[in-house]
Amino acid sequence: MQANTSLKHQFLIAMPNQAESYFGGTVTYICEHNKDGAMGLMVNRPMDLPLHQLLKQMGMDQTVEHSILVMEGGPVNSERGFILHTDDVQYESSLALRDGLMLTTTRHVLEAIGAGKGPEKYLVALGYTGWSEGQLESEILENAWLSCPASNEVIFDIPYEQRVQKAASSLGIDFSLMSREAGHA
Which residue has better confidence, 176 or 130? Predict the structure, then answer.
């Protein structure tokens, strides 16, 4: 992997040899990747926490019952919320990503979602994944991750348990047939 290649707006799929690790079976959306490191959100590990319950715990009024599950975004800052959403609603603190995606970390977006005035599509995650300078590149060279183009469809429309396979299929790969052993030429 070239040092100047950014994985921003890519998915990282944990390779089968990571099955026993924390990231086993996950697909992670990379929000930022630069010379200082990378930051992403796992998009297929739902917590046993419906969004309406999180909003209630935060003391927010709700006019809409939100039954979607909050995602475990990663092991870093697991008490902090990250909302990946479509750009039909933007907030002063929103960070524009690509392909109509925004990342917002403020309470305002959750209040808007609770009131039925939030973005059309959104994924709420607690915590994030992070890599220091050169760490992600090293892990990719060690065959820990497969990268592929990100897709809003995978993030918002595909059932959680099908997201790894759907993301891998964008590369023409049937992920269920991949071996836990990596080959090197």
Answer: 130
Q: What is the pTM of this model?
A: 0.90
Alpha helices in 26-170 (DSSP H): 51-57, 107-114, 135-141, 152-156, 163-169
Token digits of residue 162: 């099908």
Q: Which long-range contacts (C-beta less than 8 Å, at least 24 apart) are formed by 49-52?
A: 49/126, 51/113, 51/124
Distance (Å, whole) CA 164 – CA 25: 7
Give the pLDDT band of residue 176 (cuts 50, 70, 90): confident
Which burial class, exposed, middle or buried, applies to 88 when counting CB atoms under 10 A from its CB (0-12, 13-18, 19+)? exposed
Residue 17 and residue 181 in contact, taking contact as beta carbons nearer than 8 Å = yes
Model confidence pLDDT, tens digit, residues 107-124: 889 999 998 899 999 999
Report phi then psi at 175, rounded to 5: -60, -30
Hey, what domains does the chain have and what are their CATH numbers?
10-174 (3.40.1740.10)
